[in-house]
Amino acid sequence: MTELNPPRGMRDLVGGEAELYEYLFSEFRDTARRFGFEPIITPTLEYFAVFEAKSGEEIKKSMYVFEDKSKRLLALRPEVTASVIRAYLRLMRARPKPIRLYYIAQCFRYEEPQYARYREFWQGGLEVIGDKDVNADLLVATAASEFLDRIGLRHVYIVGNVATYRALMRKMGVAEEIQDHILHLIDKDQVDKALEELRATVGEGYVELIRRIILTDDLSKIESLIRDYKDFLGELYEVVEQEQSRLCDFIQALKDLGYQARYQPRLVRGLAYYTGLIFEYKLEGKEAEPSIGGGGRYDGLTAVYGGPFEYATGLALGIDRIALATSKSPSHEVKKVLMVLALGGVPLSFAYRVLKNIIGHPAGVAMLKGFVYRPRNLARGLEYGNKIGCDFVVIIGEKEYREGKATIKDMKSGEQKTVRVDEALNTILGMLQG
Amino acid sequence: MTELNPPRGMRDLVGGEAELYEYLFSEFRDTARRFGFEPIITPTLEYFAVFEAKSGEEIKKSMYVFEDKSKRLLALRPEVTASVIRAYLRLMRARPKPIRLYYIAQCFRYEEPQYARYREFWQGGLEVIGDKDVNADLLVATAASEFLDRIGLRHVYIVGNVATYRALMRKMGVAEEIQDHILHLIDKDQVDKALEELRATVGEGYVELIRRIILTDDLSKIESLIRDYKDFLGELYEVVEQEQSRLCDFIQALKDLGYQARYQPRLVRGLAYYTGLIFEYKLEGKEAEPSIGGGGRYDGLTAVYGGPFEYATGLALGIDRIALATSKSPSHEVKKVLMVLALGGVPLSFAYRVLKNIIGHPAGVAMLKGFVYRPRNLARGLEYGNKIGCDFVVIIGEKEYREGKATIKDMKSGEQKTVRVDEALNTILGMLQG
Asked: Model-level pTM?
């Protein structure tokens, strides 16, 4: 065994990179909780059928799929929403709705790794189940924006709505899988091909209207466009009109809250389960680059798994792209590093008691962290402390131990003091202030 | 798709159970950091060869293994230490040692699920690389004990040391794989069979001494036993004597720190990579039940992966068993739940600003969390708030909105007050105190 690299497209995160991920996980979790979301942890492995149902063409092609020993087809999750809905149907149906859930989970896709695209990648997600109102979309969006604000990422919303396209296609008798495929083509910027296929399948119908909506980037013009088609739309008019106002309300509320939001009629997103409002997050000034996350309505995904129809919306942020974009250093770690050196025959248990009295004391807990080390000699211990950037070293030699004392050394200033061990914490706090 | 259960042996963690896991993850992470450990995140999927090398007979038989599309054999990690060592060799060799690392990760084993044994399970681990001293063992142990103390789990250390057995067998010319197998038999309580196989392989040698050590539960008698064999041991005497004093020092230090620790000569543990001191954690009063974690020395595992010899020690705690044993309710969540009700035509952005001004304010951030909800009417909103146990509801109707006001309702006392929105936080804080 001399291959030290992890499998292709996978990573070892160590040092500052691991710290950054922990920081992002912790900020995401904290923000989600503050906005009333509660955690859910679903299996990393699922039956393939869970994702087969509605995960979109791209994703289905690039899953890690294998048979277990009893020949059941399993898949490493390519995303988490399908599992959340499955778990909702199994365990949470009786709860008062809406239900707000968050997760942080690694997902897998088997495709050529590219810059910032890995075969194992991390997602932070928010879901609201059981609320039809646009407020549910706004709740996940606001919480995600708050997270991005906290880590210092200025971002732009790109907003679309597939409900209108789906409603028009449904009325034309287009099967759901064909709808998914047409939307997939629009997402791939193959609008002409999508419309041709649509015409070839069900004839003209609303195809011209769909084309005009797809090509109208100015949201204010959509309203009059739809009004022009009012008689032609008949009973569909109300649905289309409602979805357009959901779109406007969402964008307007985001703008009122100080965020940038832009309408993009050709936004469709890769997952086949989206049914209505959808959105993506772009980094400010980098709108041509891939999004750092996105989400939308997936009303009725519950029914795909045999459950009753339920409204639902959610989003997932790509932690890996966010990590690459986060210039801000992890601000959560402000603790000073302390090393207790146990020299010669000093009992280790004594050194640990000294350590615990310092880092475990209410006055020390927020400011200090540390460990015990027993080097070959003092010089070796201090050299190590210097190399790893210790702030304070507590030196306990045999003489100090017999007298119940310790020498505190401030590694930055070089100042040192020998004090009774029960004064160690105060001495350090004093050095910290002075 | 009507199968709602996750794959056999895997779980959906929701509600209080998910909260408990998050709490345990957070306490483990926090304790590890306080003791100077830094995070490492390794891939969930590894090349099979990484685990094939030294994971032990049991584990090798029960891995999830499959071929990727380029016919490379991959495995879902059954444990994390092998990956940590691989990542150490790849990325951390130049760092000043010792290096202290922690992880929280799900692992997988493909075997019949039993009570508290799942096919996907969670481990919290600590590793120290590059320190020969027993202090490194004590550092991981003390940090783990601190974590268990914090979550209220009284625990007992069961301590052994396979170094003596390995040294004696090595001297007798027993190949390492045979050593692993013999130790595996001892671990399975098949001492007689182990000794017979040993005799059959290499003759009598030290077999009688090994037998006597294995059957001597009283640590104080081991010392004189080894002295009796001093001449017979020759140059091995010093190694054996050192390992015995490491064992005694470890146990004594733990006892001095107030922990219960017991010597168990037949403790071997399932992983083949252990080379010296080993230990397990049992719940107090439940010592006959499976351990909640364990660890030990794996000096030289680096060499198995083609690197230079390096001292190393570590442990992993089984979060699932710990979760089952944790009676203490998650104490980290003390925040009161607030719901902002946006009624009628009140702009959602206004409601979100009110929410953010309350939960985002320094005075509110530690005490309150909340969300915006737009119910069909006030009664529906309050009913929902009641059902999910909201502490406060901030009601904003159109009249309140026009006047820049909100009605704060304390759901526990029923008290309510209409105040200017910029007084909402203070009003809530007042209600919290009164």
From this structure: 0.94
